[in-house]
Amino acid sequence: MLDHIQKAADYIRSKSDLKFNTGIILGSGLGNFGEEINIQIELDYEEIPHFPVSTVEGHSGKLIIGNLEGSPVIALQGRFHYYEGYSLQETTFPVRVFKALGVENLLLSNASGGLDPAQKIGDLMVLTDHLHLFPDNPLRGENYDELGPRFPDMSEPYSKKLIEKAKEIDEQHELNLHFGVYAGTPGPTYETPAEYNYFRIIGADAVGMSTTAETIVAIHSGMKVFAVSVISDLGVEGQIVEISHEEVQEVAAKAGPKLSLLFKEMLKFLNK
């Protein structure tokens, strides 16, 4: 693993001399945010050594390096999922590469089903905590001390400092943000009504098929994490309707400008 991480990082470094401390991973339908970046270099995942390849519509499969609001960033347009057949170690490999490239702050986004009756389709929810409900953990197996401790503390999976900054940004720009707990599940099926109810009972405010493993690896690596869910459908009793991946992408794309504003303001704060 250490060799694979190094080879991927060395390849990316050979293409760009930008120094960045923030990495971004964009979820379903949110790839258009990449167009906000003043791109220096764009790499297809296939050309990066040992990188997985995204197979899901709405995940374009490109790594972007450039500047956003005057701040250098590295971003993934599309992530990798457990349901595609990858292990959690493989889905989180880019996070390891980000760390090897000097990334200290990780901004994550996803599309998810809302469980809080106060939420509406198209709203944004800032993650304050999560429930990792996958049948595996990305840290299972041999631990490499160079990457992080054997038993990482998870008492603050999402940076409290960045959550507080999001509240300030919300007040200033009236984004109508929600704040809550995200449940990460294996997928690829959307939830049954009983499952939505179960997730709500155990403390979740939104549910999706990603993010938690990336957060675990980022914390293991010593990063600060900030994550946002676009509420693309509702798992609230009486409001559950048939949903498709195309509809999820459409909702996420419409919420893109709000997410873009939030991330831009967060980057300004991180690069002060």
Description of the structure:
The chain has a single domain (2-270), classed as Rossmann fold. The longest helix has 26 residues, at 245-270. It has helices at residues 2-15, 88-91, 93-100, 160-173, 193-201, 212-220, 245-270, and strands at 22-26, 38-44, 62-68, 71-77, 105-114, 124-132, 178-184, 206-208, 224-234. Strands 5-8-7-6-9 form a 5-stranded mixed β-barrel, surrounded by 4 helices. With 272 residues, the protein is an alpha/beta fold. A hairpin with a 2-residue loop joins β3 (62-68) and β4. 47% of the residues are buried. The two termini are 34 Å apart.
Strand-pairing-aware structural class = alpha/beta
CATH class: Alpha Beta
Tell me the major beta sheet. 5 strands, mixed, barrel
The CATH architecture name reads 3-Layer(aba) Sandwich
Main attributes?
272 residues, alpha/beta, Rossmann fold, five-stranded mixed barrel, 7 helices, 9 strands
What does the secondary structure layout of this molecule look like, with pairings?
Blueprint: H1 2-15, E1 22-26, E2 38-44, E3 62-68, E4 71-77, H2 88-91, H3 93-100, E5 105-114, E6 124-132, H4 160-173, E7 178-184, H5 193-201, E8 206-208, H6 212-220, E9 224-234, H7 245-270
Parallel strand pairs: 1-4, 1-5, 5-9, 6-7, 7-8
Antiparallel strand pairs: 2-3, 3-4, 5-8, 6-9
